[in-house]
């Protein structure tokens, strides 16, 4: 066996789905712990010290969001939510509470593994700390606060720049409307989503090759935005 | 002599009693006439008139005044037993005595009358309080009608009839149609009900000058008309009109309260039904999704990672995955349609840029658009529009996927958005064969597909869902075959008002690249 296997806690009340996720993750080289209830999940999160959690929102003994809140009190480990299209609202509460990303059922194996890898990489700090970030034709120099596109300087307003920096700092992760509004505009603006629409539109116009079909600054309808490097 | 209710005696009897009283006083006074001074005798006679006025009323008192003066003259003033007067100054005494007794009888009866009136008023006020209390506790319209009917009968001696509007705003008597009204009366009734509510006390007297038509003015709207039929021998109704207007207001308030109680109960029931429907739908979708998720995931895992499988098996696994995906899509469509058709889809409107919703839909379709580039044309500087983005994403996904499905490989799908009458108009076009002629009006119906038995997949729900969502937003959707070929679906989204303002950002050197 390899020197260290990343431990993943799978919280899902449907045995069949749990088994299939377990097989997929084990085949990809992860160590998997299973929990079928909220209580068991909370116990396992402490006892087994997983480095990642895959969480179904609809648990028989409680709401997955409660788990996210409890875990966020003491840990930054990534939490990936499994949700159904119909429980949009729960998904957003869970993301607001600190979950990192979500997958809508049914999902493909490739998608699941890609999300797990991306979030683990983020958690290990693989993407952080760089003073310069490149995506598409754009280069952002965080130290010198400059943005260039195809070598030419791009002017961003202070808020546009702040929004871009927050998105870059959370690249690969879903940011809900509330999270972005709170970080960029402040707590008084958490419900003013129209600010986001306008400013994200500006950023796309300035930075994306095709602003109507953005490659990096992606919309998660009904949820928020995701920056994809 | 004590008379409990002098009103009950006839006129003649009361006058007779007055005469008897005068006679009695004369008889009592006769043995004393040598002892008492004449002035004191006159006082006794006056006292009698006061009693008569107080007990028997004005007319007997007036009679008694004259009779007393005459008797005083006849029995006491010398020469006795004659109307002749020895001393002329007695004439002054008679005149004063007559005037005083008339005045006294007048004042006394007036006092009596106002006392009586005060009593009646107090009693009516009590009855009115009791009515208000009863109406405040009434639990049904029938109860209100009964209480008010009894009140009007007892206090004003009239017959109260209620005319309340039905759902079509047509007046009908409640609880049941009684004796039909005359044509003129029906016209007045209708006019009172329809009259503008500007004048708060637009109570109208009936054609006969006695009946009253009292509009029941609630705070929000007119709740009906109270018709009070006066009894012909009882002047109570016209006299008590101010009080009856008060009764009408009380009734209107009670009816309005009952109306809102009803509304609240209905919406509570509706909410319960809604919750039940929602929980049934979500438990069905959960039960179907679980096996589909497993099926889809396992087949996907096999197709990707099955190194030990041959190509044929891997292909089969891929096919299972794709079919499971389609099945899931269909189930989602069916559940969506069930939710939408159950009515009352609660839109979660928020301000959105339409191009963002289109971009997200295209990304969501992903692989389905491998062979079909999508050209998006959005007029610049479109303002934000309030819509339910999750639902609108379904509309764009369905329309674009549909367009791609019917287009020849490599042909572009175009999406155009233009301002339209304050709102937006969206057109999705493809380069396919277009809708079959004659089917244009039907394509948005449930389970209708453009081409019968076409190889293209879909349960035919896609367009019906689009229509339901667009119409829930107040828009309109239509299909056409434009002359330049292909198919076109156009829908509108009406203006949702001014988007909220954005505080302008101060020019700030902290920005980047400046």
From TrEMBL, chain A:
InterPro entries: CheY-like_superfamily, OmpR/PhoB-type_DNA-bd, Sig_transdc_resp-reg_receiver, WalR-like, WH-like_DNA-bd_sf
Assigned keywords, A-Z: DNA-binding, Phosphoprotein
A Pfam short name: Response_reg
Domain OmpR/PhoB-type, first and last residues per copy: 130-229
Residues carrying 4-aspartylphosphate: 56
DNA-binding annotation, residue ranges on this chain: 130-229
Superkingdom assignment: Bacteria
Domain Response regulatory: 7-120
Name recorded for this polypeptide: Two-component system response regulator KdpE
Protein species of origin: Aromatoleum toluvorans
From TrEMBL, chain B:
TM ranges: 12-32, 90-107
Entries under SMART domains matching the protein: HATPase_c, HisKA
Annotated EC: 2.7.13.3
Pfam families, per database record: DUF4118, HATPase_c, HisKA
Entry membrane topology: Multi-pass membrane protein
Catalytic reaction list: ATP + protein L-histidine = ADP + protein N-phospho-L-histidine
Subcellular location: Membrane
UniProt KW keywords: ATP-binding, Kinase, Membrane, Nucleotide-binding, Phosphoprotein, Transferase, Transmembrane, Transmembrane helix, Two-component regulatory system
Name by which UniProt lists this protein: histidine kinase
Region (Disordered): 494-514
First-listed, main subcellular location of the protein, grouped into a coarse class: membrane
InterPro entries reported in the protein's UniProt record: GAF-like_dom_sf (IPR029016), HATPase_C_sf (IPR036890), HATPase_dom (IPR003594), His_kinase_dom (IPR005467), HisK_dim/P_dom (IPR003661), HisK_dim/P_sf (IPR036097), Histidine_kinase_KdpD (IPR052023), KdpD_sf (IPR038318)
């Amino acid at each position: 066996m390899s020197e260290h296997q990343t431990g993943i806690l799978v919280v899902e009340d449907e045995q069949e789905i749990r088994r299939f996720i377990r097989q997929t993750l084990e085949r990809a080289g992860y160590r998997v712990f299973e929990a079928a209830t909220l209580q068991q999940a909370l116990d396992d999160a402490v006892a087994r010290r997983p480095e990642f959690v895959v969480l179904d929102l609809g648990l028989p003994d409680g709401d997955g969001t409660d788990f996210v809140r409890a875990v966020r009190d003491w840990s930054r480990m990534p939490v990936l939510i499994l949700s159904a299209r119909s429980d949009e609202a729960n998904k957003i509460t869970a993301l607001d509470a600190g979950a990192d990303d979500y997958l809508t059922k049914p999902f493909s194996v490739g998608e699941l593994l890609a999300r797990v890898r991306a979030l683990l990489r983020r958690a290990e700090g693989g993407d952080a700390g760089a003073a310069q970030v490149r995506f598409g034709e754009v280069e952002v120099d965080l130290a010198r606060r400059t943005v260039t596109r195809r070598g030419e300087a791009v002017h961003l307003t202070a808020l546009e720049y702040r929004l871009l920096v927050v998105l870059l700092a959370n690249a690969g992760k879903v940011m809900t409307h509330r999270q972005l509004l709170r970080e960029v505009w402040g707590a008084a603006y958490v419900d003013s989503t129209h600010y986001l629409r306008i400013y994200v539109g500006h950023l796309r116009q300035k930075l994306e090759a095709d602003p109507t079909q953005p490659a990096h600054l992606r919309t998660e309808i009904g949820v928020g935005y995701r920056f994809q490097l | 002599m004590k008379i409990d209710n002098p009103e009950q005696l006839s006129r003649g009897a009361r006058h007779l009693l007055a005469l008897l009283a005068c006679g009695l006083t004369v008889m009592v006074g006769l043995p004393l006439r040598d002892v008492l001074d004449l002035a004191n005798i006159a006082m006794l006679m006056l006292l009698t008139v006061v009693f008569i006025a107080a007990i028997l009323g004005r007319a007997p008192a007036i009679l008694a005044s004259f009779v007393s003066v005459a008797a005083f003259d006849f029995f006491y003033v010398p020469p006795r037993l004659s109307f002749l007067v020895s001393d002329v100054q007695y004439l002054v005494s008679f005149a004063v005595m007559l005037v005083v007794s008339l005045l006294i009888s007048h004042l006394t009866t007036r006092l009596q009358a106002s006392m009586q009136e005060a009593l009646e008023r107090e009693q009516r006020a009590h009855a009115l309080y009791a009515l208000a209390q009863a109406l405040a506790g009434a639990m049904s319209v029938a109860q209100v009608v009964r209480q008010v009917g009894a009140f009007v009968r007892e206090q004003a001696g009239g017959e109260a009839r209620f005319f309340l509007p039905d759902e079509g705003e047509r007046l009908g008597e409640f609880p049941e149609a009684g004796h039909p009204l005359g044509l003129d009366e029906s016209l007045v009734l209708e006019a009172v009900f329809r009259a503008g509510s500007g004048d708060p006390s637009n109570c109208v007297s009936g054609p006969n000058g006695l009946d009253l038509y009292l509009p029941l003015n609630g705070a929000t709207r007119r709740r009906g008309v109270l018709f009070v039929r006066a009894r012909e021998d009882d002047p109570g109704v016209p006299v008590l009109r101010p009080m009856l207007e008060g009764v009408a207001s009380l009734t209107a308030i009670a009816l309005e309260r009952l109306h809102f109680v009803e509304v609240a109960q209905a919406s509570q029931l509706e909410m319960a039904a809604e919750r039940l429907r929602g929980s049934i739908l979500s438990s069905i979708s959960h039960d179907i999704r679980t096996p589909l998720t497993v099926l889809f995931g396992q087949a996907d895992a096999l197709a990707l990672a099955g190194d030990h499988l041959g190509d044929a098996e891997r292909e089969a696994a891929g096919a299972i995955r794709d079919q499971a995906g389609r099945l899931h899509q269909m189930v989602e469509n069916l559940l969506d349609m069930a939710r939408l058709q159950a009515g009352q889809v609660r839109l979660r409107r928020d301000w959105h840029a339409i191009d963002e919703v289109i971009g997200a839909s295209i990304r969501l379709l992903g692989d389905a658009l491998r062979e079909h580039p999508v050209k998006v044309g959005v007029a610049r500087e479109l303002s934000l529009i309030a819509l339910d983005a999750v639902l609108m994403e379904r509309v764009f996904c369905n329309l674009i996927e549909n367009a791609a499905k019917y287009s020849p490989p490599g042909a572009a799908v175009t999406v155009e958005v233009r301002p339209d009458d304050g709102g937006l108009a969206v057109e999705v076009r493809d380069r396919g064969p277009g809708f079959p002629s004659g089917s244009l009006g039907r394509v948005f119906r449930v389970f209708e597909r453009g081409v019968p038995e076409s190889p293209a997949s879909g349960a035919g729900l896609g367009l019906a869902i689009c229509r339901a969502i667009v119409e829930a937003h107040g828009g309109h959707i239509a299909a056409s075959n434009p002359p330049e070929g292909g198919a076109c679906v156009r829908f509108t989204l009406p203006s949702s008002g001014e988007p909220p303002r954005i505080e302008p950002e101060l020019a700030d050197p902290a920005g980047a690249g400046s």
